[in-house]
User: Which sequence fits this backbone?
Protein backbone atom coordinates (compact mmCIF):
# COMPACT_ATOMS: atom_id res chain seq x y z
CA UNK A 1 0.00 0.00 0.00
CA UNK A 2 1.23 3.51 -0.78
CA UNK A 3 0.27 4.84 2.62
CA UNK A 4 -1.85 7.90 3.31
CA UNK A 5 -1.68 10.26 0.36
CA UNK A 6 -2.24 13.98 0.71
CA UNK A 7 -2.39 16.70 -1.90
CA UNK A 8 -1.24 19.30 -2.51
CA UNK A 9 2.04 19.08 -0.58
CA UNK A 10 2.40 22.84 -0.70
CA UNK A 11 -0.16 25.55 -1.29
CA UNK A 12 0.37 29.29 -1.32
CA UNK A 13 -2.74 31.39 -1.64
CA UNK A 14 -4.02 34.84 -0.93
CA UNK A 15 -6.32 35.80 1.89
CA UNK A 16 -9.94 35.28 0.97
CA UNK A 17 -9.34 32.44 -1.45
CA UNK A 18 -10.82 28.98 -1.06
CA UNK A 19 -8.43 26.18 -0.18
CA UNK A 20 -9.18 22.48 -0.61
CA UNK A 21 -6.88 19.86 0.85
CA UNK A 22 -7.29 16.23 -0.14
CA UNK A 23 -6.57 12.91 1.49
CA UNK A 24 -6.64 9.28 0.44
CA UNK A 25 -6.45 7.00 3.48
CA UNK A 26 -4.94 3.54 3.54
CA UNK A 27 -7.23 1.03 1.90
CA UNK A 28 -9.23 -0.90 4.49
CA UNK A 29 -8.84 1.68 7.25
CA UNK A 30 -12.15 2.73 8.75
CA UNK A 31 -11.27 5.92 10.59
CA UNK A 32 -9.73 9.16 9.34
CA UNK A 33 -8.38 12.15 11.21
CA UNK A 34 -7.47 15.68 10.18
CA UNK A 35 -4.82 17.49 12.26
CA UNK A 36 -3.28 20.95 12.03
CA UNK A 37 0.29 21.59 13.16
CA UNK A 38 1.78 24.97 14.06
CA UNK A 39 4.77 25.96 16.13
CA UNK A 40 2.60 27.78 18.64
CA UNK A 41 -0.18 25.22 19.13
CA UNK A 42 1.44 21.94 18.19
CA UNK A 43 -0.74 19.20 16.71
CA UNK A 44 -4.43 19.96 16.98
CA UNK A 45 -7.12 17.46 16.08
CA UNK A 46 -9.65 19.16 13.84
CA UNK A 47 -12.12 16.40 13.02
CA UNK A 48 -12.34 12.65 12.72
CA UNK A 49 -14.55 10.25 10.79
CA UNK A 50 -15.56 6.66 11.50
CA UNK A 51 -16.81 4.71 8.50
CA UNK A 52 -17.04 7.96 6.51
CA UNK A 53 -19.27 9.61 9.14
CA UNK A 54 -18.02 12.75 10.95
CA UNK A 55 -17.96 11.91 14.65
CA UNK A 56 -16.34 14.88 16.35
CA UNK A 57 -15.63 18.22 14.72
CA UNK A 58 -15.17 20.15 17.95
CA UNK A 59 -11.61 20.99 16.93
CA UNK A 60 -12.62 22.78 13.76
CA UNK A 61 -11.69 26.39 14.51
CA UNK A 62 -14.67 28.09 12.93
CA UNK A 63 -17.31 27.89 10.24
CA UNK A 64 -14.78 28.73 7.56
CA UNK A 65 -13.53 25.16 7.93
CA UNK A 66 -15.45 22.16 6.61
CA UNK A 67 -14.54 18.53 6.01
CA UNK A 68 -16.20 15.77 4.04
CA UNK A 69 -15.64 12.10 3.45
CA UNK A 70 -17.86 11.05 0.54
CA UNK A 71 -16.45 7.53 0.48
CA UNK A 72 -13.95 5.31 2.23
CA UNK A 73 -11.08 6.33 -0.01
CA UNK A 74 -11.33 10.11 -0.09
CA UNK A 75 -11.66 13.07 2.24
CA UNK A 76 -11.38 16.82 1.83
CA UNK A 77 -10.72 19.70 4.19
CA UNK A 78 -11.92 23.03 2.87
CA UNK A 79 -11.19 26.52 4.13
CA UNK A 80 -13.35 29.30 2.73
CA UNK A 81 -12.40 32.10 2.95
CA UNK A 82 -8.80 31.53 4.00
CA UNK A 83 -6.96 33.87 6.37
CA UNK A 84 -3.24 34.29 7.16
CA UNK A 85 -3.74 32.66 10.59
CA UNK A 86 -4.75 29.46 8.80
CA UNK A 87 -1.14 29.04 7.65
CA UNK A 88 -0.02 25.67 9.01
CA UNK A 89 0.75 22.12 8.03
CA UNK A 90 -2.40 20.01 7.74
CA UNK A 91 -2.09 16.28 8.26
CA UNK A 92 -4.44 13.49 7.42
CA UNK A 93 -4.13 10.17 9.24
CA UNK A 94 -5.98 6.89 9.12
CA UNK A 95 -6.39 3.89 11.37
CA UNK A 96 -8.06 0.51 11.39
CA UNK A 97 -10.20 0.60 14.50
CA UNK A 98 -10.35 -2.71 16.27
CA UNK A 99 -6.81 -3.62 15.28
CA UNK A 100 -4.52 -4.42 18.13
CA UNK A 101 -2.00 -1.67 17.53
CA UNK A 102 -3.99 1.54 17.77
CA UNK A 103 -1.41 3.01 15.42
CA UNK A 104 -2.24 6.04 13.30
CA UNK A 105 -0.72 6.27 9.83
CA UNK A 106 0.02 9.82 8.73
CA UNK A 107 0.35 11.41 5.34
CA UNK A 108 3.24 13.72 4.56
CA UNK A 109 1.09 16.78 5.16
CA UNK A 110 -0.07 19.79 3.17
CA UNK A 111 1.83 22.98 3.98
CA UNK A 112 -0.53 25.92 3.58
CA UNK A 113 0.64 29.52 3.39
CA UNK A 114 -2.01 32.23 3.25
CA UNK A 115 -0.63 35.64 2.31
CA UNK B 1 -6.21 20.77 24.54
CA UNK B 2 -3.03 18.80 25.01
CA UNK B 3 -3.22 15.47 26.80
CA UNK B 4 0.51 14.91 26.95
CA UNK B 5 3.33 17.27 27.82
CA UNK B 6 6.83 16.29 26.78
CA UNK B 7 9.95 17.26 28.63
CA UNK B 8 12.41 18.60 27.65
CA UNK B 9 11.18 20.70 24.74
CA UNK B 10 14.58 20.38 23.10
CA UNK B 11 17.54 18.08 23.63
CA UNK B 12 20.96 18.16 22.01
CA UNK B 13 23.40 15.26 22.46
CA UNK B 14 26.42 13.68 20.83
CA UNK B 15 26.25 10.58 18.72
CA UNK B 16 26.57 7.47 20.86
CA UNK B 17 24.93 9.03 23.91
CA UNK B 18 21.54 8.02 25.22
CA UNK B 19 18.54 10.33 24.87
CA UNK B 20 15.69 10.34 27.37
CA UNK B 21 12.40 12.11 26.78
CA UNK B 22 9.55 12.29 29.23
CA UNK B 23 5.81 12.62 28.82
CA UNK B 24 3.16 13.44 31.39
CA UNK B 25 -0.54 13.05 30.73
CA UNK B 26 -3.69 14.15 32.48
CA UNK B 27 -6.44 11.55 32.26
CA UNK B 28 -6.62 7.77 32.36
CA UNK B 29 -5.44 5.92 29.28
CA UNK B 30 -5.63 2.45 27.77
CA UNK B 31 -2.30 2.84 26.06
CA UNK B 32 0.34 5.44 25.29
CA UNK B 33 2.11 5.80 21.99
CA UNK B 34 5.29 7.48 20.82
CA UNK B 35 5.71 8.95 17.36
CA UNK B 36 8.63 10.42 15.50
CA UNK B 37 8.57 13.29 13.00
CA UNK B 38 11.47 14.13 10.74
CA UNK B 39 11.64 17.72 9.58
CA UNK B 40 9.07 18.41 6.88
CA UNK B 41 7.58 14.92 7.08
CA UNK B 42 4.57 13.20 8.60
CA UNK B 43 4.54 11.43 11.94
CA UNK B 44 5.61 7.81 12.15
CA UNK B 45 4.52 5.44 14.89
CA UNK B 46 7.40 4.08 16.98
CA UNK B 47 5.98 2.06 19.85
CA UNK B 48 2.84 1.53 21.91
CA UNK B 49 2.74 0.59 25.58
CA UNK B 50 -0.47 -0.61 27.21
CA UNK B 51 -1.67 0.57 30.59
CA UNK B 52 -0.94 -2.84 32.15
CA UNK B 53 2.66 -2.79 30.94
CA UNK B 54 5.52 -1.06 32.74
CA UNK B 55 8.26 -1.34 30.18
CA UNK B 56 8.63 -2.21 26.53
CA UNK B 57 11.60 -2.53 24.19
CA UNK B 58 11.94 -2.22 20.44
CA UNK B 59 15.46 -2.23 19.05
CA UNK B 60 17.26 0.78 20.57
CA UNK B 61 14.01 2.12 22.03
CA UNK B 62 12.89 1.57 25.59
CA UNK B 63 9.59 2.92 26.83
CA UNK B 64 8.38 2.96 30.41
CA UNK B 65 4.95 3.77 31.75
CA UNK B 66 4.01 4.76 35.30
CA UNK B 67 0.23 5.03 35.49
CA UNK B 68 0.33 6.12 39.13
CA UNK B 69 2.35 9.19 38.12
CA UNK B 70 0.66 9.51 34.74
CA UNK B 71 4.03 9.61 33.04
CA UNK B 72 6.03 7.81 30.39
CA UNK B 73 9.60 7.99 29.17
CA UNK B 74 11.24 7.16 25.87
CA UNK B 75 14.89 6.18 25.92
CA UNK B 76 16.92 5.97 22.73
CA UNK B 77 20.20 4.19 23.34
CA UNK B 78 23.42 4.68 21.38
CA UNK B 79 21.92 7.57 19.43
CA UNK B 80 22.80 8.27 15.82
CA UNK B 81 22.68 11.44 13.76
CA UNK B 82 19.75 9.87 11.90
CA UNK B 83 17.73 9.91 15.15
CA UNK B 84 17.52 13.70 14.85
CA UNK B 85 13.78 14.41 14.82
CA UNK B 86 10.88 15.51 16.98
CA UNK B 87 9.32 12.91 19.24
CA UNK B 88 5.72 13.01 20.42
CA UNK B 89 3.75 11.06 22.95
CA UNK B 90 0.06 10.46 22.24
CA UNK B 91 -2.89 8.80 23.88
CA UNK B 92 -6.64 8.30 23.68
CA UNK B 93 -7.60 10.18 26.86
CA UNK B 94 -10.28 8.62 29.02
CA UNK B 95 -10.91 5.90 26.46
CA UNK B 96 -12.02 8.42 23.84
CA UNK B 97 -11.56 7.81 20.14
CA UNK B 98 -9.48 10.95 19.65
CA UNK B 99 -5.69 10.50 19.60
CA UNK B 100 -4.26 13.56 21.32
CA UNK B 101 -0.60 14.55 21.02
CA UNK B 102 1.81 16.44 23.24
CA UNK B 103 3.92 19.29 21.87
CA UNK B 104 6.95 17.11 21.38
CA UNK B 105 10.65 17.01 22.15
CA UNK B 106 13.02 18.17 19.45
CA UNK B 107 16.08 15.91 19.53
CA UNK B 108 19.32 16.86 17.82
CA UNK B 109 22.08 14.25 17.65
CA UNK B 110 25.39 15.79 16.69
CA UNK B 111 27.83 13.62 14.71
Assistant:
Amino acid sequence: DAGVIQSPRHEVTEMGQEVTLRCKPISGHNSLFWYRQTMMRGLELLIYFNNNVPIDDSGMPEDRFSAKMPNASFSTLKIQPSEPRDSAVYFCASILRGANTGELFFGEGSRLTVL
Amino acid sequence: SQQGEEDPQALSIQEGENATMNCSYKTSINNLQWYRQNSGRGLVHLILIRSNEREKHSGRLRVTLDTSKKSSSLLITASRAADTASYFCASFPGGSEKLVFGKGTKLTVNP
Observations:
- Chain B touches chain A through 21 residues (CB under 8 Å).
- The mean pLDDT of chain B is 92.
- The CA atoms of residues 23 and 81 of chain B lie 23 Å apart.
- DSSP finds no helices and eleven strands in chain B.
